[in-house]
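Listing S7. Sequence submitted for prediction.
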Amino acid sequence: MNNNSTSSTDATQAGKWTGRWSGMVSVEDTALAVTDTGGTGIPVVYLNGQFATQGYWRRTIAELGTGFRHITYDERARGKKSLRSADYSFEAAVRDVDAILAARGVERAVVVGWSYGAVVAAHWADRNPGRTLGLVLVDGAFPYDWIDEAMKQRIRKMFKQMSWFMVPMRVTGITPRMNAAQQAESNIELGELSRTSELGPVLDRLAVQTRYVVASGTSLGSKGDEQEVIRTSLDGVTARNPNIKVSAKVASNHGALLKKDAPAIAEAVRDVAGPSAV
């Protein structure tokens, strides 16, 4: 077996192998960089923030330890290795979850998503209740009408202004290999999908144990108490669906909680994974 790269077919066969694996998985018109710690523990697949990388999860993985099988990957045009694509849509992101799990031979998993990844995770779990062992949503998937025409223009302006320093940083993997317009439109699509009328019904239908880990304060691009107001939408979510609970409200802001509050995220994973989790 080549432990550096693989096609999705090869990786499906490799899914029976329990050792650590990293490589490339072919998906549609692209290929994604994937890491699978292997082992016989409960599989956990981690879905990144919109322009983040799989490395953000290393502290959570360390907290959970070898009793779980951890699967991380970099989305299209993210990180150092995942290739560009003609499709950066939300639906493509949801399809990629299926592709990665199939490639690694995993039928059922705990799904953990942060920020944009939380919305992807909620949609995937809604569509695949029988395959979702539990769901952890980390400071994302808040049903709130925060997008309007003024916000769309603000988003486009922000990404255009940031492009001058984001382009040279692409080689480091810190910023995505997407242009400013592509990043802005992806963010705007997230706003549309986060509307109460769009995301609310998805969360209301969730039939699996779901835990939120919620940050505090602001995030990149937000102003004043915008982010905290958006988070209040969880009150209605938890009131309507008994499967959904807030596991922790931490002091860290949106960008820092994966670094500073990995124990809280790990505890939420153990909770939804059930008594068989270590």
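Caption to Listing S7: primary sequence and predicted structure tokens for the chain studied. The chain is about 40% helix and 20% strand. The two ends are 30 Å apart (CA to CA).
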